[in-house]
Amino acid sequence: MSSVSAYYNGKTVLITGATGFMGKVLVEKLLRSSPEVKAVYILVRPKAGQSMQERVANMVKCKVFDRVREDCPHFHEKIKPINAELTQPKLAISAEDEEELLARVNVVFHCAATVRFDEPLKWLDESIIQDITPKLLGEWPNTYTYTKALSEYLIQQEKGNLNIAIIRPSIVGASWHEPFPGWIDNFNGTSGIFIAAGKGILRTVIANNEAVADMIPVDVAINLTLAAGWYTAVHRPKNLLVYNCTTGGINPFFWGEMGQYVMSTFKRNPLEQAFRTPNAHMTSSYLINQYWITVSHKAPAILYDLYMRLTGRKPRMMKIINRLHKSMTLLQYFSTQSWSWSSDNMNMLMTHLNTEDKKLYNFDVRQLHWSEYIESYCIGAKKYLLNEDMAGIPAAKQHLRKLRNIRYAFNTTLLVIIWRIFIARSQMARNIWYFVVSLCYKFLSYFRASSTLRH
Length: 455
Fold this sequence. Notes:
The chain is α/β, with parallel strands linked by helices and 455 residues long. It contains 17 helices and ten strands.
């Protein structure tokens, strides 16, 4: 019997950020693993022209809920949306909703966060914030990491008698096993970069091949979160525990390996209508990276957009390239360095789980095989982000062969043109050219003569 599942059965849970990537996985796992949970309140705001009700309706239709939908077709009835805005005082929750939450909620999971690394700070007047932000950040690389640290400090100072735990996941990637392998629903972080590489758009990345790529599957982070919630409520540790949900210290994986696995996967399982054959390279040299950006990113993008204009269509490649470069710049701080994180609290928690809990809430990353996981991640991006059918792989492979032949023909033509220009200006080059042609002619004549004698 699972102690963790039993704890959440009969409880009323409040979740912020439930419509986000990690939030959806948390809601799904909670409803599936603890089917007797009383209710799951979620804070939702209107967004992009959609009302709160419309956003929740779209959320429960998401494929991530397919497994729980099979077991419990009416699971959505337990999801109770509350209109809220987390950036406003008292979260802009109505007095009536506040009273209901205070009376019923037993457990709170706070998952809401901006996913932009460079989100502007919003404490004071905008002009003042722009002036003081660099001083506030200090050694922090961006506002994302700075505000995370600030929030942790505030929680530790103001928690009072509340039983609280903090989960620190590293780079969150697609699911490992649950609700099914490779599930992903956004282009943030490494997901967009994987797709850009698979499409042949991304050709160069600044990274230290030997630096640890501390990635964590989303279901591992959620399993740890639910287990930590149980432990915090039942065992009531004296101190606030911080769980570093990372892989680097237990099962290290390196950026150089990641690049190889991604390229290998997309060559075996290519994306449809690729721009070029997948062939991204990692370098720690700024100058080499800038050279390849100019030659392999910007120059082809300009030519492609020119072609689009000439054929009466809207140019878009340069816009994609600029957006990609911005993402790469934000990731660069993490792809060129390694950090050492303590896994003591995660290991401690694992020892408190019974056999059933270790299976149901598996966060043992020692069992993770990186080559299999990255392949699953890339295929998941193909299926769930791009909505591409695996049955289309033969046609996608044929498209890659066509692109390869075009590249060979272009490179050969360019080489001949350059060589002919060089020959026209140099007597030595002409002599070499005539010598090579003569040698080839003699070789072919000898080959024909030998064939005739043998017959």
